[in-house]
Amino acid sequence: LILNTKNLLHIEDGAFRNLPRLKYLSICNTGIRQFPDLTQIFSLEAHFILELCDNLRMTTIPQNAFQGMNNESLTLKLYKNGFEDIHSHAFNGTKLNQLILKDNKNLRRIHNDALRGATGPDVLDISSTALESLPSYGLEAIQVLNATSSYSLKRLPPLDKFSSLLEAVLTYPSHCCAFRNLRTEKQNSLLSIFANFSKECESTMRKPTNEIFYRDDSYNTSLWSAEKNMYPFATDEENSPYSYSAIFDDSEMIGFDFEYDFCQPKILRCAPEPDAFNPCEDILGYSFLRVLIWFINILAIAGNFTVLLVLITSHYKLTVPRFLMCNLSFADFCMGLYLLLIATVDAQTSGQYYNHAIDWQTGSGCSTAGFFTVFASELSVYTLTVITVERWHTITYAMQLDRKLRLRHAVPIMLGGWVFSILIAVLPLLGVSSYMKVSICLPMDIETGLSQAYILLILVLNVVAFVVICACYIKIYIAVQNPELVAANKDTKVAKRMAVLIFTDFTCMAPISFFAISAAFKVPLITVTNSKILLVLFYPVNSCANPFLYAIFTKAFRRDFFLLMSKLGCCKSRAELYRMNYFSAYTSNCKNGSSATAPSKASQALLLLSA
């Protein structure tokens, strides 16, 4: 034992030479800067333990650092040192039982060939290190992997590298998804053979005890079972008709932990288990959603981009309805971008999301997607409410020009909506709820009272907005239903248009609000997996429908669209027709003495609510 010797700065080569009876060597809490020469120990003991700990100035493990120590089983406890790098072939020439590298806070790299030339290890502990990846060679023998608090290890090597793994204690639940129901290669090849002996085993074997033998005080695992003492059929292997050695040799049975008999080989165990917010699935979960989301996001992006382009390039005066429609189209365009981002990442990580979950959910991508969706959703709901109130106000006070809503009024109103929407979208980035909770980057974190209040505030405001929209459209319908103002067929047309507008709002808001409010009170009525159906089929309904219902299906928009196309050399005859109809209607109004600035209530209703 070489302990607590801070003034010990160097151990000369050959200091440990020809020590055949050495079983245990501990060098801890010293000032050594260079890895000591341990290659001339030549211990003949069946199991040799080396402990290097708290040597903070020791930064690397060189090539062949342990070659020649022992030709038998070797346990290396290399923890709480200053290691930053482990070189190629560092463990060459060893038969590793356990390799403990835990608590090396600065250990960022193990060379891909660090374990080349070594046998084992059976146990690898890299907990509380800064490793970003595991070596690509030498993982096949590992039966126990401990990687707790290894927050930089966000990706695992290909699963076929862990052909003998039985127990894994990891940092992130998503990594356990990779190992779910994964059996070792030998287990898979032997399961069918074991099944043939099921009835014989059940009739002759008794249930073994759960006694566990721990080979090392510092390591507690169920792998080292006292097999010879636990199983009655192992006491006389040569004569027993059910002796596994009669069928398989010992090397073939490595990797099995028998609970009742060899008919029930144990599958891999992994912790921590995935939770309800992050089940073992891709971002979208269902295959049909993966197809639908592309159709929906393209529809939302193309529709809203077209509306924005036509309204911005139109040579007609920017009116309040046009201004509000521009804001609504931009909000719904952002929602399309969110869906596009989710669909793209899902396509890139399909089948291997467990290896990308941490980078995605904790990175800037998910935060950006979350900001887009909350900002777009709130700005869209706000703008829809303003548009509806403006329509009601215009029809109700059609004859009172002094009460008409003008652009100088609409600008500060929408500026308030932008500030509100940005604030609501930024709060999860500042710790009020979080976009990192789920793969679809919605603020579903309700662990704190503040986060819960945040979610409830959004939902209540959305419900209030829907009630206001419904109330306004009902009032509009009552106003235009007067037979003195509009003909019966027009009345029916207006009623249908309003019914469509209210239905799309209800379809978008109702299911989302219902399930979200129940979840906010910690009584979830739907799983995250099923909520993704709402995300794709209901959540973006308004973003897809709004550009058509509020713009594309209106005569004014079609006029602006064909006029824009005529500037590009297309649809000139159609554009000329719209231009002639516009001037003809304007001339007719002038001859009849009607005022262009003070339309009747009936004409306002037809203009605002009929195509």
TrEMBL record:
It is found in: Cell membrane. The chain crosses the membrane at residues 291-312, 324-345, 369-389, 410-433, 453-478, 499-521, 533-553. InterPro entries: GPCR_Rhodpsn (IPR000276), GPCR_Rhodpsn_7TM (IPR017452), Gphrmn_rcpt_fam (IPR002131), LRR_dom_sf (IPR032675), LSH_rcpt (IPR002273). GO terms for cellular component: plasma membrane. Its main location: membrane. GO terms for biological process: adenylate cyclase-activating G protein-coupled receptor signaling pathway; hormone-mediated signaling pathway; male gonad development; ovarian follicle development; ovulation cycle process; phospholipase C-activating G protein-coupled receptor signaling pathway. Keywords: Cell membrane, Disulfide bond, G-protein coupled receptor, Leucine-rich repeat, Membrane, Phosphoprotein, Receptor, Repeat, Transducer, Transmembrane, Transmembrane helix. Gene3D superfamilies: Rhodopsin 7-helix transmembrane proteins, Ribonuclease Inhibitor. One of its GO terms (molecular function) is G protein-coupled peptide receptor activity. It is a multi-pass membrane protein. Residues 303-550 form the G-protein coupled receptors family 1 profile domain. Belongs to the G-protein coupled receptor 1 family. FSH/LSH/TSH subfamily. This is Lutropin-choriogonadotropic hormone receptor. It comes from Corythaixoides concolor (Grey go-away-bird). The gene is Lhcgr.
